[in-house]
Every structure is written in C-alpha cells, then in structure tokens.
C-alpha cells in the first residue's frame, strides 16, 4: 500500500468530503479522489460511499479508519520527537472548539500564541458537540464542561467564570412589557439556539436558592456558529428575548441596543477548558500551547 493513498483516505473520511479534505490537507480534490480509488482497487473493497452531497466511510472503511488512526498518531509522535533538536517547536496544532469559544475566548489566546511560536500552525475545527478529539484527528478540544473522562487532562483557557445574560431591545420591552420573573418568559417571544446534534438547551435561572428551568418558544431557532450573529441581530431588531453568553451580548448592552432583564437571576458557570488525553505523548505544538496557557494563568 502507498502511504500517501492511506493518508488521502484518512483525510477524506475525517473531513466528510474531497473538497473539505483538500482545503485542510493542501492536496487537490482530484488527487485525493485518484488516491482513494487506487487504494480501493488494490484492496478490492469500496471504502467510501459517495453521493452528490456527502462522502461517508463504508463498514470496511470505518474498520480501516479505526485501525489506521492510532498507527498514524504513533507515526506523527515519532516524527514529533525531532522537535527536541529545534530551537523552536514547529508543526500543526489541531483544535476542536465550540462556536462560543471560537468567538470569545480563543481570539485573545491564539494571536499571542502564534506570535510567540511562529513555526507552529493552528487549525481550528468549530463543533459544538463533545467529541473524541483523537478519533477525528485533532490534538485537543475546548469545552465548557469540566466533567470530562478520567483519562482527560483539563487546563483552564479564558475567563474562569462566565454568565448567561437575558436581554431584549427597548422597543420590544415597550411593546410586550418587562418580565419580572423567569416564568414570565413563557408568554414572550424567545430566540432559541440549538446544538448541532438537535438538542435545544433549556434556559436556567437561579436566585436566592430558587432555580427555574425553562423551555420557552419563539419565532427563531438557530444552530450555533455564524448563526449566533443572526440571533443577536434579531434581538437587537426587537424580534424577541435573547439568552446567551454575557460576553457576546456585552457590546449591545453597553450601547443600549439591548436592555438587561432578570439580571439578579443570571446564572454563573465555569469558563472553558482545553482538554486532551492524558495517556498519550504530547506533540510539540500541543505541549507548547499547554505551557503557554499555564504561564498566562499564572
């Protein structure tokens, strides 16, 4: 088997398409397609199911991907050992992060990190579900829940405490009235966010020992990512009530475009964590990133 053909198969299977794999691997989509077909011909098996919309591994492809992933990880680790002979670490750091971290905490970290380590290249995959970072080809992930698997190491990244804020445009509040208790939101137009997996997180409020959990309805439901700008714009335009990270809403709260409501009920939660498996050799780019975060955290 040609190593490049195996590499092409892994890239396409992980990316879910030839064009997507071409963007991340730097190899043309046509070259990847030829390599995968050559591999399938040699094996006498179809490894990928191709449609006009997507590419997904067959059962044989999944089994091969499962076996190849740890082998290629070991190869990358072996090559990474050479970094000890360099003056500065180099290589690629692949991070899997939620949309909220990509917008808020990560920008203030990535820029100074890249300036400090100019030979390191960072690839960021935005995804909101909790994933096995190694199985999808990433070195580490960022999530807000610190309750991770036992073999995971978690390092704080960004603010240690954050809040969810609830707000609406002044014109909306003039028209519909100002909620005095979280349950009042059940009669309001609420703008909701849905996870990629289909789950819609409930709105949680807490004040003086009373906890209220709501699942209000409204005229707009979006999935995270760039769509967060859409739901914020809708709130500013007076469409309804928004419940989102305070840092995302802060510019609009400060400008008066949005007014805070139910502020004594706003819930605090722990900030994001960088997580990675504790049982593997740390690639030099990830080791440099972890050390960088620990220095920033003091």
Characterise this structure.
The protein is globular and about 70 Å long. Helices cover 38% and strands 23% of the residues. Helix 1 (3-15) packs across helix 2, helix 1 (3-15) packs across helix 3 (29-43) and helix 1 crosses helix 4 (59-80). With 298 residues, the protein is of the alpha/beta class. The protein folds into three domains: 1-65, Winged helix-like DNA-binding domain superfamily/Winged helix DNA-binding domain (Arc Repressor Mutant, subunit A); 86-157 and 271-298, D-Maltodextrin-Binding Protein, domain 2 (3-Layer(aba) Sandwich); 161-269, D-Maltodextrin-Binding Protein, domain 2 (3-Layer(aba) Sandwich), CATH 3.40.190.290. The longest helix is centred in the first third of the chain and has 22 residues, at 59-80.
Search tags:
298 residues, alpha/beta, Arc Repressor Mutant, subunit A, D-Maltodextrin-Binding Protein, domain 2, five-stranded mixed β-sheet, 10 helices
Topology of helices and strands:
Layout lengths: L2 H13 L2 H8 L3 H15 L4 E3 L4 E3 L1 H22 L10 E7 L1 H5 L3 H10 L3 E7 L13 E4 L8 E5 L4 E8 L1 H7 L13 E4 L9 E5 L2 E5 L5 E3 L4 H10 L4 E5 H10 L3 E2 L7 E3 L2 E5 L6 H14 L1
Parallel strand pairs: 3-4, 3-5, 8-11, 8-12
Antiparallel strand pairs: 1-2, 5-15, 6-15, 7-12, 7-13, 7-14, 9-10
Helix pairs in contact: 1-2, 1-3, 1-4, 2-3
């Amino acid at each position: 088997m040609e190593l490049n053909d195996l590499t092409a198969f892994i890239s396409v299977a992980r990316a879910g398409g030839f064009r997507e794999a071409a963007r991340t691997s730097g190899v043309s989509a046509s070259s990847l397609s030829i390599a995968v077909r050559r591999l399938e011909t040699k094996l006498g098996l179809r490894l990928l199911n191709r449609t006009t919309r997507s590419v997904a591994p067959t059962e044989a492809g999944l089994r091969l991907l499962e076996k190849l992933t740890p082998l290629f990880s070991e190869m990358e680790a072996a090559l990474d050992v050479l970094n000890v002979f360099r003056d500065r670490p180099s290589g690629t750091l692949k991070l899997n992060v939620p949309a909220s971290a990509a917008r808020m905490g990560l920008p203030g970290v990535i820029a100074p990190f890249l300036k400090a380590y100019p030979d390191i290249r960072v690839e960021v995959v935005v995804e909101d579900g909790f994933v096995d970072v190694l199985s999808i080809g990433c070195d580490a992930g960022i999530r807000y829940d610190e309750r991770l698997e036992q073999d995971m190491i978690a390092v704080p990244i960004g603010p240690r405490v954050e809040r969810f804020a609830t707000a609406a445009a002044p014109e909306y509040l003039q028209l519909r009235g100002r909620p005095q208790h979280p349950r009042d939101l059940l009669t309001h137009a609420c703008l909701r966010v849905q996870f990629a997996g289909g789950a819609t997180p409930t709105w949680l409020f807490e004040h003086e020992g009373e906890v209220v959990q709501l699942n209000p309805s409204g005229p707009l439901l979006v999935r995270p990512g760039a769509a967060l700008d859409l739901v914020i714009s809708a709130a500013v335009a007076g469409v309804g009530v928004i419940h989102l990270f305070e840092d995302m809403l802060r510019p609009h709260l400060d400008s008066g475009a949005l007014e805070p409501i139910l502020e004594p009920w706003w819930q605090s939660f722990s900030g994001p964590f960088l997580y990675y498996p504790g049982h593997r050799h740390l690639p030099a780019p990830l080791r440099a990133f972890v050390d960088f975060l620990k220095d920033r955290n003091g």
